[in-house]
Amino acid sequence: MIRILILCLVSSLLCLNGAYGQARSSLGFALGANQTLNKYEHSLNASISLVGDVRVFNKLAIEPSIAVHEVNNYVSARLSAKYYVANRVFITAGPFFWVGTDIRTGFGATASAGYRIFDKPTRNFELSLHGNFAKYIYNSTPVIGLRAAYNFSFRKL
Hints:
Blueprint: H1 2-14, E1 26-36, E2 44-57, E3 60-68, E4 74-86, E5 89-100, E6 105-119, E7 123-136, E8 139-152
Antiparallel strand pairs: 1-2, 1-8, 2-3, 3-4, 4-5, 5-6, 6-7, 7-8
């Protein structure tokens, strides 16, 4: 997880001046595949998410998300900052909160790097690789995953 955050920070610093302004407000759905890397469990889980982007500046958006079954029998809510480091390339980082079917709860951190496959004025499709780190029940559990998101924007740029 620390390596992902360092990679995201370094890449954003290298591309800071040349970033293309493309942040916009949108709402979408995402499907993901997530692998837990706990020393006791290595489970593969699917997730479905409701994802929003709230444009702050040309290169920066706030990305709230709610995911179901990101880790088996858990729901997570995250609030990440999304920064565009280059044309169609973005990084995100932020905290998340989770709750399980057994009513246990906790906090964690998430980071991702992604690419917009296509980018139209009213819709886009993104792929991202993400990493989460949280303490689920009693064990610290890193999770890596791949997420595909389809977003709708209700106004043109």
